[in-house]
Structure formats: structure tokens, C-alpha cells
Amino acid sequence: MASLKSLAKDTAIYGLSSIVGRFLNYLLVPLYTHYMPKDSGDYGVSVNMYAYTALALVILTFGMETTLFRFANKEDEKPDTVFSTAFATVATLCVLFAAGIFGFITPICDSLGYSDHHEYVLMMAAVVVLDALQALPFSYLRFQKRPIKFASLKMLFIVFNIALNVLYFMILGKTEVFYVFCINLWCTGIITFFFIPDLFRIKWQFDLSLLKRMFKYSWPILVLGVAGILNQTADKIIFPLVCSEADAKAQLGVYGACVKIAMIMAMITQAFRYAYEPIVFAKNKDKDSKEYYALAMKYFLIFTLLAFLGVMGYMDILQRIIGAEYREGLKCVPIVMAAEIMMGVYFNLSFWYKLIDKTIWGAWFSLAGCAVLVAINVIFIPEYGYMACAWGGFAGYATSMVLSYIVGQVKNPIPYAMGSIMTYVLIASLFFAIMSYLPSFIDSPIARMGINTLLIIAFLAHIVYHEKILSFVRRR
Predict the structure, then answer these.
(1) Each residue of 265-295: pLDDT tens digit?
(2) What is the CA radius of gyration of the chain?
(3) What do you get for the CA distance between the two ends of the chain, in Å?
(4) Rounded Cα distance, 155 and 463, in Å
(5) How far apart are CA 361 and CA 277, in angstroms?
(6) How far apart are CA 461 and CA 476, in angstroms?
């Protein structure tokens, strides 16, 4: 129970920086969708470029974040040596990446569709390099149980980012996507400097034999990571390449703006991951570890289902986050949110192979999911547009999740409370169906939100009753 309290505390801190930070970032969505008209395609350009940078970041970090936790928690390894070996590896990859971008900038821009805008690719490449160099120091803060500094630096980036965006878009009238990339580069560069004192306190030692063992562990995680990020970004990369509509980037902007609402689920999953990942590897030594993992999975799913109902129940308010001309894509939000829940479940399931050093399984599961996603996008985007993107992500995550569960219960079984979990899923699905059909019968948004609130309260009551929360509180 003490471990669960620690998980809840750290999740709250990480979640505060993640959720508050993402919420403040949401304030940029109405800013961008107001000042960047849909037909200009500028917002679609930003969605497309950030998809490429997310993929590049996963490749440059090479799975070393999870590898750092695994090896730093081993009794026969020195954490500083693990960190410095991993950091040197990532830094080398960053140098090679930067050299490749600068050396082949013209053909790269031509292939991406930005022949007239080399500066977009150069700026975002610089952002990727700086983000990759920050990734391991941020992970080391998590290993050292320093969530306050972690959260503070994340929030500082957000504050700088929002302040500069407001200055440029609303005050100076600089509304082109070029300035979005400029601001991101400046803010990322500023945060990098705050890690310098920590880097000087590290006892630097590069261990080649350790690196070989880390590579053996990390390369399947890299494949898993690439497949995982493609599950999140492949649709935004593929869409302008195969979309038959003339305004492909404008439509991509619509999809990207609406997906921002669904990213509330991604925030919750990310906050949980930041807190849960270091605890899992440390908890593996305890006898009750499997019961703990099963309980954590159940509570994660309960909370994400509650968040799902909250978002869908108050969509009449949340839709105002994005500009009116972008709201045509709101129908994809519940699909993307459901996909994000499955991604979170898949993350929870992934520890069975990480803890027994069989990360190759994760690579296979993620590749299978990615293959399903890409196939659906390529086949159906020309006819169904961005709705194919939403369903492709749903199908891709479902594939990875189901495969991981089936194989995991054979290789390293964990006693998940499937009966209780499925009950929560069915109740949430029923309540969502009711919420979805209300607009057909009730015109008043206030009345709809009133009924939705009652449904959410009913779901909460079910949680309180079946999890015996009141009894637990009284005992405390």
C-alpha cells in the first residue's frame, strides 16, 4: 500500500506538470486556429512537421530512457555510469543526425514537400536534437525521485512558450507557422541550460561493456518506440501524401486541432508513466509485485474511463477550445480517446517483457499494431479522409494490446481482475452511448450536460461502492 501511495503522490506531481502544461498548451489551439485560417494550411503544416519530429526524437533517444531505469536499478551497476554511458550514446546519435540534416537539406525538404521552406526543417531538426539531449537528464530526475524539479522545468517551458506565442500572434501580428517553429526552438534551448549544473555533478564514466548490454536491451525498445510513435503520428505523416483532396493540409489541420481535445487521455497516460516506470523496476524485487501491477492496471483503467466520460460529457464546452471552422472533425474525438486508453493499457501490459529482459516481444507487438494502422491509413484515407486516421489508430493500438495480453499471460502471467475491469468498460460504454444520442432528443446544451453530469456521478458512485473507498477512508 505504501508503494501505491508513492505512485499516487508522484503521479499527482507529474500529472500536475503534464495536465496543467497541456491545458495551457490548449490555449494555443484557439490562438492558432483563430489566427491561422483553415484554408491557409499553416496549422496543418505544424501538425505534419511535429509528427516528423516526434518520430525523429524516438530514434535519437534509442530506447535509452527505459534502459536507464532498468540498468540503474541493478545492484551491480553504478547509476552515474549508466547515465553517462547512455547520454554519450544519445549525444553521438544527435551529432550524426544534425550532420545528415545539414548535409542533405535540399533532398530532404523536397521529399517532405517543403522545397520552398528549408528553414522549417532546419529549425525543427535543432529542436529534436535539443529535446533528445534533454530526455535522459529528465529521466534521471525521475530515477532520483525529484519530481519537483522535473515538473518545474516542464512548466517553465510551457510558460515561455505561451508567453512568446501570445506576444507574436496577438501583439506583433506575426501569425505564420514559421514563428511557431522559432518559438519552440528558443524555448527548448532555454530549458537545456538548466540541466548544466546537474551534468556537472555527474561522475562521468563511459563503460563499453555496459553499453553492449544496454544496446542488447534497448534496440527492441527502439523498434517498439518507433512503432509506438508511428501509431501516434503515421496518420499525420501519411495523410498529406495520400489524401485525394486539394486542401490536404487544411484537412490535416482540422484533424490535428480536434485530436488536441482527445489528448487529455494522453496527458493522463503520460503522467502515470512518469511515476509508474521507476517504481515498477524497483518493485520487481518484492514478492507481491504481480498483485501490485494488477491493481495498478485496474485503477489506471478506472481513472481513464472516468476521464473519457468527463470529456465526452462536457464536449459542448470543450469544443470551444478550437476555432469554429475546425469543429467539423469533432466526431473523431471519442475514437482517438478510446485508442489512447488502449495505448495506456498496452503500456501497463508491456512490463512483463521488460522485467524479464525480453523486450523483443514489445517490438513485435508494436510492429503488428503499426502495420495495421499504416494499412488502414493508406487504403482508406483517400476515400474517408481523417476518419480513417482515427480508426487506424484505434485498430493499431487494439492489435498491440490484445497480442501483449495473450502472450504475457503465457510467458509471465499477472492476475488482472478482468471481470471487474470489463464491468467498468461496459458501464462506461453504455453511458457514452447515452451521451452520444442525447443531441438527437435534447437541443439544450445545458440540459445535455446536466444529464451527462448525472451519468458521471453514477459512474463515480459505482467506483466508490465496488472499490470500498469509503471503508478504506474510515480505516485511515
Answers:
(1) 777 776 666 666 566 655 555 666 778 778 8
(2) 22
(3) 12
(4) 32
(5) 18
(6) 20
